[in-house]
């Protein structure tokens, strides 16, 4: 059991939770993730990157977006409630060293897993330039936290409601065109965003890491649900990743696999909404 000690809503569908997990907080490294399950018997296992940890408090911080049935149920839990299953830290940590200049690019909810990586890169002596973006101002998260870490912070929104009106790939390309160019780029966000970040850096031969968030079941490489193609080789995100060379990831194949259960997820979410409506009607 892991108790929720803090809950905060960051935007309309994005929530932050601090969870009691002293052993995970002590062992976790930048880039690693946990898997949690709300229902011990039949619940979906949700992989979430550890956005932060406090060894003194014995807590880890997760940030998630409500996109379906399981994340909707998670968002309804409150401080004091307990999550029955929490496993971690999982995955390989980010390889951190002093590269020189590192560009960290976060799109939407991807800013959350980017935060500890940017922090670790800064502590290793790198110059950290951070680009964060979202569709609108209301969907931006962790701006102050990223600003505190970065030597330079660039904020973009699709609609121009805040910061610069642009996609994250535009300032990324501009940085790659400079002399000297960045020694490393790290991109985390929706699959399409990571794909185009990798395509942006490819002509400039800037090494680019991406952190993949795929469907997972056991988190040990046994089920094969998180399989991706990297450099024409099969890799498992849970044990071989979650970070890979963005120039080698077959994003089209990954996106296709992510959509495999979309219809089932939609039906499950709709069924859950119907149950809520009937429950409210019964009370009335």
Question: Quick recap of the structure?
Answer:
The chain is of the alpha/beta class. 30% of the residues lie in helices and 31% in strands.
Work out the helicity level. Answer: 25-40%
The 3D shape can be described as globular
CATH homology superfamily name of the largest domain: Nucleotide-binding domain of ferredoxin-NADP reductase (FNR) module
Strand content: 25-35%
CATH topology of the largest domain: Rossmann fold
Which strand order spans the largest sheet, edge to edge or round the barrel? Answer: 12-11-10-9-13-14-17
Could you characterize the architecture of this molecule?
The protein is built from 9 helices and 17 strands. 30% of the residues lie in helices and 31% in strands. The two termini are 34 Å apart. The strands form 4 sheets. The protein has a 7-stranded mixed beta sheet with strand order 12-11-10-9-13-14-17, sandwiched between helices. The mean pLDDT is 89. A hairpin with a 2-residue loop joins strand 15 (227-230) and strand 16 (233-236). Helix 5 packs parallel to helix 6 (191-201). With 284 residues, the chain is an alpha/beta fold. It folds into 2 domains: 2-90, Elongation Factor Tu (Ef-tu), domain 3 (Beta Barrel), CATH 2.40.30.10; 101-211, Rossmann fold (3-Layer(aba) Sandwich), CATH 3.40.50.80. The chain has helices at residues 22-27, 69-75, 111-123, 143-149, 169-176, 191-201, 237-240, 251-258, 262-283; strands at residues 2-11, 14-20, 33-37, 45-49, 52-54, 59-65, 82-83, 85-90, 101-107, 127-134, 152-157, 164-165, 184-188, 208-211, 227-230, 233-236, 243-245.
């Amino acid at each position: 059991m892991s108790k929720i000690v803090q809950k905060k809503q960051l935007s309309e569908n994005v929530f932050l939770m601090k969870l009691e997990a002293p052993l995970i907080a002590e062992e976790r490294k930048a880039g690693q993730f946990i898997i949690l399950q709300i229902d011990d018997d039949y619940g979906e296992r949700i992989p979430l990157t550890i956005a932060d940890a406090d060894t003194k408090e014995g807590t880890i911080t997760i940030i998630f977006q409500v996109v379906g049935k399981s994340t909707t149920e998670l968002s309804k839990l409150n401080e004091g409630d307990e999550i029955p299953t929490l496993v971690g830290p999982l995955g390989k940590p980010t390889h951190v060293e002093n590269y020189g200049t590192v560009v960290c690019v976060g799109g939407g909810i991807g800013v959350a897993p980017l935060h500890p990586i940017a922090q670790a890169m800064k502590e290793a002596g790198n110059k950290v330039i951070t680009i964060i973006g979202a569709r609108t101002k209301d969907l931006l998260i962790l701006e102050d936290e990223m600003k505190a870490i970065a030597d330079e912070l660039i904020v973009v929104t699709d609609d121009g409601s805040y910061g610069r009106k642009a996609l994250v790939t535009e300032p990324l390309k501009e940085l790659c065109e400079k002399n000297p160019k960045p020694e490393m780029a790290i991109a985390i966000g929706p699959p399409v965003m990571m794909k185009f970040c990798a395509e942006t850096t490819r002509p400039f031969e800037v090494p680019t890491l991406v952190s993949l968030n795929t469907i997972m079941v056991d988190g040990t490489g046994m089920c094969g649900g998180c399989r991706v193609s990297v450099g024409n080789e099969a890799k498992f995100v849970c044990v071989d990743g979650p970070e890979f060379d963005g120039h080698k990831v077959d994003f089209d194949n990954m996106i296709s696999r992510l959509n495999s259960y979309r219809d089932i997820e939609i039906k499950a979410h709709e069924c859950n909404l119907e149950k809520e409506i009937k429950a409210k009607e019964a009370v009335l």
